[in-house]
């Protein structure tokens, strides 16, 4: 539901509609009572509660694609088993991820804290590509061992914990061996 003042042009309605659907304005046609409406016209004959039809040429709308270097971040609410996946740019700050999550769930950002392995994430830092040490920490917690006792090996070579996974040129079918040092 959108409200137009009698002095507004239909462009105001078009801009709000396109922003909501994330579509370019040139791919939307408007009509009122079966007649085309042009963006520069004013709603002189439109009464309160009238409906303006908006038709989007969906065949021309390009689906958004994630950047080649995009990072997938899984966010899970405390007490819930459901996770949500956000695809973000590696240079995006934690604050932007927090705002997106809060917007999606109608939450106030000041009431939400993002944590990674129990540590609070600072809002002004960027989300880097997943590093090997992230998985090392997860495995060490699950196996109840120190992180220094966990080693990942791919094709016979040890993976360095501070390297991001993308530096190993993984294609998806590789097997990463997990070796636990015995004490």
Task: Write a structural description.
This is Rad60/SUMO-like domain-containing protein. Helix content is 20%, strand content 22%. The protein has 3 domains: 47 residues, Phosphatidylinositol 3-kinase Catalytic Subunit, Chain A, domain 1 (Ubiquitin-like (UB roll), Roll), CATH 3.10.20.90; 64 residues, Ubiquitin-like (UB roll); 55 residues, Phosphatidylinositol 3-kinase Catalytic Subunit, Chain A, domain 1 (Ubiquitin-like (UB roll), Roll). The radius of gyration is 25 Å and the shape is elongated. A 3-stranded antiparallel beta sheet has the order 2-1-3, covered by helices on one side. By secondary structure, the chain is α+β, with helices and mostly antiparallel strands.
Q: What does this entry show, briefly?
A:
The chain is α+β, with helices and mostly antiparallel strands.
């Amino acid at each position: 539901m959108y409200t137009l003042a009698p002095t507004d042009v239909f462009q105001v309605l078009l801009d709000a509609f396109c922003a909501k659907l994330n579509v370019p304005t040139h791919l939307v046609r408007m009509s009122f009572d079966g007649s085309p409406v042009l963006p520069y016209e004013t709603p002189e004959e439109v009464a309160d509660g009238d409906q303006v039809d908006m038709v989007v040429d969906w065949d021309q709308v390009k689906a958004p694609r994630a950047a080649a270097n995009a990072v997938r971040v899984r966010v899970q609410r405390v007490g819930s088993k459901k996770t949500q996946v956000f695809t973000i740019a590696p240079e995006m700050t934690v604050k932007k991820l927090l705002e997106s999550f809060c917007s999606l769930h109608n939450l106030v950002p000041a009431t939400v804290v993002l944590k990674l392995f129990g540590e609070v994430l600072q809002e002004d830092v960027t989300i880097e590509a997943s590093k090997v040490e992230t998985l090392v920490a997860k495995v060490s917690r699950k196996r109840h061992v120190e992180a220094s006792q966990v080693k990942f090996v791919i094709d016979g070579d040890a993976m360095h914990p501070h390297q991001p996974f993308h530096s190993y040129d993984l294609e998806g079918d590789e097997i990463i061996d997990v070796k636990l040092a015995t004490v």
